[in-house]
Specification:
mainly beta, 4-stranded antiparallel beta sheet, two-stranded antiparallel ribbon
């Protein structure tokens, strides 16, 4: 789960939506290396991972696509100054940030050769227009779904009925080759029926989306029927 500290957000994405999108980005790290953080604990190098994101689309430039690769790991702790810090204290004592790391995470052998980063670097976070900017820190902690649903380790699921493609007549040889190429997701294939002849067959019915692309051309709907298997749910 990611807690987002937004320093500046002039994009069209609201802070709450942006935080939700960041929370869905998988992190390439073994969670067993980190401790759970209770209400009484302070964020430290053993229970928190800190990323920063600073993406600016300069005025006069083209639109900027902000990807997950822009999330930079901060092994030395947060760089944002606590809001409770007064400007007068900056020159007297060390500025307090939102995390308290006693040592840098990249000095640990688990991370020295395998730096922490988003698992996928091409996830779109935002699309900036000229002059728009996002500056934030994302603090990653682990917990369980019993605490809050945002820590529930589940993924989006979908269901659908099983497609059924029925040939109303045999489609063979050159006509079969033409038909097989019509399907963009390669549901059909060719089978050898002997004597140098080949016939179109349904090779991968489960991948069919019933787009009807293969029978869109006039006349093909009289040769092939696109149906569903009633009661069979995928």
């Amino acid at each position: 789960m990611i807690s987002v500290l937004s320093a500046n957000n002039t994009s069209i994405i609201q802070d709450e939506v942006l935080a939700h999108k960041l929370g869905l980005i998988p992190i390439k790290v073994d969670p067993r290396l980190f401790e759970y953080m209770s209400e009484n604990d302070v964020p430290n190098e053993k229970n928190t991972i800190v990323f920063k994101l600073n993406a600016l689309c300069k005025k006069g430039s083209q639109r900027l696509i902000v990807l997950s690769s822009e999330l930079k790991w901060l092994p030395n702790s947060s760089e944002l100054i606590l809001a409770t810090e007064s400007p007068a204290s900056y020159s007297i004592t060390k500025q307090k940030t939102y995390t308290s790391f006693s040592s840098s995470q990249d000095t640990l052998p688990e991370f020295s050769n395998y730096p922490i980063a988003p698992k996928d670097v091409d996830i779109i976070i935002a699309k900036h227009g000229p002059g728009q900017e996002i500056e934030l820190e994302a603090h990653v902690v682990k917990d369980i779904g019993m605490t809050h649903a945002k820590w529930s380790p589940v993924a989006t699921a979908k269901y659908g009925v099983l497609p059924k493609v029925v040939f109303l007549r045999d489609i063979e040889d050159d006509e079969a080759e033409t038909f097989v190429k019509k399907c963009p997701i390669k549901v059909f294939d060719m089978e050898d029926i002997g004597k140098g002849k080949k016939r179109a067959t349904v090779a991968r019915p489960r991948v069919c989306t019933l787009s009807r692309e293969c029978i869109r051309e006039e006349g093909w709907d009289k040769n092939v029927a696109m149906r569903r298997v009633n009661g069979h749910i995928i």
